Amino acid sequence: xxxxxxxxxxxxxxxxxxxxxxxxxxxxxxxxxxxxxxxxxxxxxxxxxxxxxxxxxxxxxxxxxxxxxxxxxxxxxxxxxxxxxxxxxxxxxxxxxxxxxxxxxxxxxxxxxxxxxxxxxxxxxxxxxxxxxxxxxxxxxxxxxxxxxxxxxxxxxxxxxxxxxxxxxxxxxxxxxxxxxxxxxxxxxxxxxxxxxxxxxxxxxxxxxxxxxxxxxxxxxxxxxxxxxxxxxxxxxxxxxxxxxxxxxxxxxxxxxxxxxxxxxxxxxxxxxxxxxxxxxxxxxxxxxxxxxxxxxxxxxxxxxxxxxxxxxxxxxxxxxxxxxxxxxxxxxxxxxxxxxxxxxxxxxxxxxxxxxxxxxxxxxxxxxxxxxxxxxxxxxxxxxxxxxxxxxxxxxxxxxxxxxxxxxxxxxxxxxxxxxxxxxxxxxxxxxxxxxxxxxxxxxxxxxxxxxxxxxxxxxxxxxxxxxxxxxxxxxxxxxxxxxxxxxxxxxxxxxxxxxxx
Length: 503
Description:
Blueprint: E1 2-3, H1 6-9, H2 26-44, H3 48-66, E2 68-69, E3 72-73, H4 74-90, E4 95-96, H5 98-101, E5 119-120, E6 123-126, E7 132-138, E8 143-152, H6 160-178, E9 185-194, H7 198-207, H8 214-227, E10 232-243, H9 244-253, H10 257-278, E11 281-286, H11 289-300, H12 304-314, E12 330-331, E13 339-341, E14 344-352, E15 375-384, H13 387-410, H14 417-434, E16 439-451, H15 456-467, E17 472-475, H16 480-488
Antiparallel strand pairs: 1-16, 2-3, 4-12, 5-7, 6-7, 7-8, 8-10, 8-11, 9-10, 9-15, 13-14, 14-16, 14-17, 15-16
Helix pairs in contact: 2-3, 6-10, 9-10, 13-14
């Protein structure tokens, strides 16, 4: 969690789910107490040898429940491994599109694998002069949203003062989302695209002079081979969503159904364009059904972006990409440490922020492509708590930090530097919320995608090297298919509702 103002954010980033009892969650503490009961019972009966055996067994089980191994306790690893093997044996984790299998296909019905099967994409009514906007209905979490494509110049060449100004505006944008009753989540996705020169080829075919000198042609072709092969473009998306509970009443007043929910969301979307442009965005294009299908399709298959862009530039497209063609052709059973989709392989990570916080633009090294043909993605999912939830959260945080500090002082233990930082951060955070700021849950995910014929482990290691010394990357083993959706697709999936369930 963090506050929505960047100056207060520094030093206040903390885990959402901190344990109350010696760092343990209530469930972990109850399990440990339950494991200790038979040992104490045996000791009270004077059966010390049996008590030693029980203590060994129960201690081993307690370690499985408590000790984290790369982000997850061993017992949870075991459960996830069992579920993974069941999916592989039964074939549930393998997927093939209806078109590839010869089944009849409805062009307006998405055909997507994995976690995306719970997401539907109904078209809303006409939004001003921009046509129909495609809604994103997550039936699993009960959320409605919409996605937009942004045109942004980037922050790599900006000064520290300019980044600080943009960070303050981002905080104001999140604060404004927290003050709205309809939406509470925003997801930002930046995706690199290997530039295959499609735009240049189309422009050149339209402006080429037939009687150009041969030397000029050879020079232009040589520049195309040397410069065009290493060029990289960037795509930026933003996804806004709100819960069904927040939308139900205003949507009923607006006519009910999908159209009523769309009209309520449109009022919010119209008011978010100016704050997004204040962040350096040149244009905001809310995606239609075909636009969102293209964003998902190019996420699964980066090579398809060339054909789609050529259709846009030459005007050969008729009605855009149908929703049924948004997904991949097939996805085999996901491997433990990678996700294969069509002719590509991806490795996804959760980006763990440092305890001391970070600054605006510090995640940009994760998008630095090192090899031509490689693609990198970075997604940050925000959820802004309302004032009541934020007040309860900071009060609980301050009370817990004070209780632990006072308990250590009563036992004669001196407070460590981390304890002092946590206590001071709890007080500062409570003051910030009392002053009108918001508490923001967030999760960041990064991914690297390469052709399946390449060694994806080499490119994953380069991504880890770019994060070394700045952030900690946690590879999401046994969940690479879901992590790919969170890191590479602009559908707003990536921040679970349950506490402690951050990526």
